[in-house]
Amino acid sequence: MTGFSTRQIQAGYVPATPQNSAVPPIYQTAAYEFGSLAEAADLFALRTAGNLYSRNASPTQQVLEERVAALEGGVSAVAVASGQAAVAVTLLALVGRGGHIVAATQLYGGTVDLLQETFDDFGIPVTFVDQDDTEAWRAAIRPETRVLFAESIANPIAQVLDIRAVADIAHAAGVPLVIDNTVGTPYLVRPGEHGADFVVHSATKFLSGHGTSLGGVVVDLGTFDAGREPARWPHFTEPYARVGDFTLWERFGIGQAFAALVKSKYVHDLGPSLSPFNAWQILQGIETLDLRVSRQSATALALARHLQQHPAVARVHHPGLEGTPWHALAERYLPRGGPSVFSFDLAVPRGADTHASVARVIDALRVIRLVANIGDARSLVNHPASMTHSHLTAAQREAAGISPTTIRLSAGLEDAADLIADLDRALALT
Ligand SMILES: *Cc1c(COP(=O)(O)O)cnc(C)c1O
Question: Given CA atoms 381, 377, 181, 252 in this order, what sign does their dihedral have?
């Protein structure tokens, strides 16, 4: 296999289209014309693969799928309309009917909403555990558990997961581990190398890097084997009634059956399809992923070090800093650099109004922008307690390490000196 930088520019595309376009074209069409009725029938029955209707896939999307699979070291991938959709269809496809999920407490706010409200409405039980507590992961597993879920680097506190420890617990229970690698990025960490079975991304963030387009991807790393315990996974191992009398596991097998189920059932039925234009935008972003992430990672560490010695800052949550709780895990899992999304807690003077102090600082920033996004070329801040994590209870925020004074930073590609000057000017107002 070629190196990471070559893969991020070339994987999944051979310019053998009739027009020989050097860059993957945008196939902006809702549907595809069949050569004959027999050809159409074969496509609908999953006997052959090909272009059918853009809810299922477009060729632009397929290039993106192959490219992200290549970057994560996976076998196949499915791209969908958003990271939220990627998490939802992945977990739905694994839990099947009657399954139970064990998930980390330290998750993106939108994922917490999905798991504890919408999945609860659907009757899908979820147990949340502190991701650093291996005993809690083990104790939460039930006979009907079908998947363990966590983020490689949690947002906004940048806790680093011991992926290998959680993967071993999942595999001892005979279930796969799904890792949300949005903040990690495949440049900094490839969860498949540490035992994860599926990786999901909000492609909106670092894969795009330009903040123009929503998208999500799930990669099958080719290690989940439903055939080993077929009774546990009837939706893979019993006849796939909607199409024919074959089973998905027989027809597609390890590494491919999951994508076939996600596309032909969950994306087909629920409809969170990726537009060809957004797939193309995300491909443009991926071409510079390693350059951007290495620069953002270095900038973030410089900002973290600066904030750590600033009198207006009580605490910096960045695992690259010596003496912080996740530093040893960062050294083990992130040898190429730490996350560029991290947080710090303001030191609010005794007796001062906490929220007013936080607001003064955030509203004074000029170079760093107040935007609910991460992984953008622009440096962005967010106040988790009143924005991305406002739906959580105070106790849930505390369990995730978020305080009312926590400010999240996503380091962009501007000059680090300008970002530091901007922070210093704003912090003088606490
Ligand atoms: C943003 C984000 C999501 C959701 O992705 P969208 O593309 O916004 O739907 C999921 N997980 C993490 C870690 C995220 O940061």
Answer: positive
- 376: Cβ below 6 Å to ligand 1? no
84 Cβ inside 6 Å of ligand 1: yes
Residue 354 C-beta-side C-alpha neighbours within 13 Å: 12
Q: Is the CB of 108 under 6 A from ligand 1?
A: yes
Query: If you average pLDDT over every residue of the chain, what do you get?
Result: 96
- pLDDT confidence band for 332 (50 / 70 / 90): very high
Ligand 1 centroid distance, CA of 31 (Å):
29
Q: 147 with 120: CB under 8 angstroms?
A: no
CA–centroid distance, 83 to ligand 1, in Å, is: 5
- Domains in the chain, please, with CATH? 37-285 (3.40.640.10), 289-427 (3.90.1150.10)
132 lines ligand 1 (CB under 6 A): no
Report pTM: 0.96
Compute the radius of gyration of the chain from its Cα atoms: 22
Distance from residue 365's CA to the centre of ligand 1 (Å): 24
Q: Is 410 in the pocket of ligand 1 (CB under 6 A)?
A: no
Provide φ and ψ at 247, rounded to 5°. -105, 150
Contact 237, 247 (CB under 8 A): yes
Is the predicted pLDDT of residue 199 greater than 90, yes or no?
yes
Terminal Cα-to-Cα distance of the chain (whole angstroms): 52
